[in-house]
Write a structure and sequence with these properties.
Blueprint: H1 4-13, E1 18-23, E2 37-41, H2 42-58, E3 66-70, H3 75-87, E4 90-93, H4 100-110, E5 114-117, H5 119-128, E6 137-140, E7 155-156, H6 157-162, E8 180-185, E9 195-199, H7 200-212, E10 221-224, H8 227-230, H9 232-235, E11 239-242, H10 255-265, E12 269-272, H11 274-289, H12 294-298, E13 304-307, H13 314-321, E14 329-336, E15 339-346, H14 347-352, H15 354-358, E16 363-368, E17 373-377, E18 399-404, H16 416-422, E19 423-426, E20 429-440, E21 446-451, E22 456-459, E23 465-468, H17 470-478, E24 483-493, E25 496-505, H18 511-526, E26 536-539, H19 555-567
Parallel strand pairs: 1-11, 3-4, 3-5, 4-8, 5-6, 6-7, 10-11, 10-12, 12-13, 13-14, 25-26
Antiparallel strand pairs: 1-2, 8-9, 14-15, 15-16, 16-21, 17-18, 18-20, 19-20, 20-21, 22-23, 24-25
Helix pairs in contact: 1-2, 2-3, 11-13
Length: about 575
Amino acid sequence: MNLCRHLVRASKETPKLLAVAVQKKQRHIRSLQSLLYDEMTFSELNDKSDHMAHALLAYGLKPGMKAVLMVTPSIEFFVLTFALFKTGIIPVFVDPGMGVKNLKQCFEEARPDIFIGIPKAHFARRLLGWGKKSLQYYITVGGSHFGRRSPWGGIQLEQWVKHTPKSGRFRMAKFDEHDMAAILFTSGSTGTPKGVVYSHGMFEAQISALKDDYDIQVGERDLATFPLFSLFGPALGMASIVPDMDASKPITADPALIFAAIERYQCSNIFINPALIERLGKAGLAQRVGHKTTGLNSLKSIKRVISAGAPATISSVVRFGQLLPVEAKILTSYGATESLPLSQISHHELLKTADATNNGAGICVGEAINGVDIKVIDITEQPIRQWQETLCLSPFEIGEIVVKGPMVSQSYYQRAQADLLSKITDGDIIRHRMGDLGYLDDMGKLWMCGRKAHRVEAQDAKGLEKRYYSIPCERIFNTHPLVKRSALVGVSVKEKTAALICIELSTFLSQKERNVLLKELTLLASQHHVTLGIEQFLFHKRFPVDIRHNAKIFREKLAIWAQQKMAE
């Protein structure tokens, strides 16, 4: 196995078909029609990655080495990544948005041999001492005017490749399905980042899922807002169209540039996170209201939208759906870095669950895709070494979600304790504990109820225990028009744990208006079983959230803040 075999096949079967187009950064844009793009066909991508693979080995790199990749989405990113896979060098993907402390930890754990990055990344590496104990080779992408030798150490990639003689077709490395293909670090937005070991079999399973369960066809064009997913485009015979945006902070993207890229290449697919769905939906409707049709016309070619990374709100899905052709689908996918995709639900089906969600039933994320087995087990913090069917809960019983399938990672990298707490041996394969809570209904659909770490085990005045779940509780209060979002946390009150709801307002309210709102929220809590007993509320100016999704609330930070406020 090798991910690149799909690229090689496409270069033979559809050599002139567009594989990649990257929107150039331009300081002065006269009009959206004047935007410039770097383009590459499947034949060109395969040829250039062959040449680069030869150049990497000529520098002294060897199969099995690990290479941290900190390169912004560009033509070079695609060529380089496929070259790494062809040589058998293991790319290590880290999210720059995870923070300096977490990045340093990732380097210490992965112990990479090679650092490949843009000049800015090399500057940070030197300044912060990343990878001092393990790095042996340095490659700079960009700044080609420096010549073959980079001022940051090692080589300047484009110049090095330019001066490396072409040696014909590269004989790509071949692997077993269980061999390590890459290491992807989790974002750290819901805990400490961990390196997820991706096998060649996992990549193959993801490609098969996108082809079979999402019906992606050769010749389609994808508006790619997430760098790693954009690599699947060429593997599927689909062109990856990359807009000018900061992929680590999609919420800051300019909708006009995204609409322009979709319209220019008549994209049929979009891979997007919920925060960007919200942003594009609002921008598109604003253009319609203002009698500007750019956003509306730009989306007429869309067949499907794949949303992943965090649960999409029903309101944002409805809003964005108004801009799409009637036959287009918004598919919400459930999964994680360790296992994606696992289930899917179309926005038409999601809308049918809106009433249940608004009344505390959790968020429906659909049925398992082909080859995936989803089970729910009782909540425990203890390791589970061997799988038994007797662990499974009955329909509608809330517990921890456990998954099995060919796209499920079998281990973390150098994290034995994490493996112990999240992996369960089931014969020859491994089941993964998602760390998410939910339940299966009587039709086999999965409903999300939040992270296991975000549940609150509270005691009422009589000492009776009740368990509160983040998504069901918060949705009750989020239905109030004055609430932008809410967050469930646990606080200590008179030596007992109480459930408290932090509130971020959608608009400014006076103290008198806040007092009225508090009474309304308390009444709301008393009207639903999932929130019954919640009587504590605090207003927070702006919730701390993750950079990438702008949706994952740092409840741990809010809990500390809430405890301090309660003590005042």
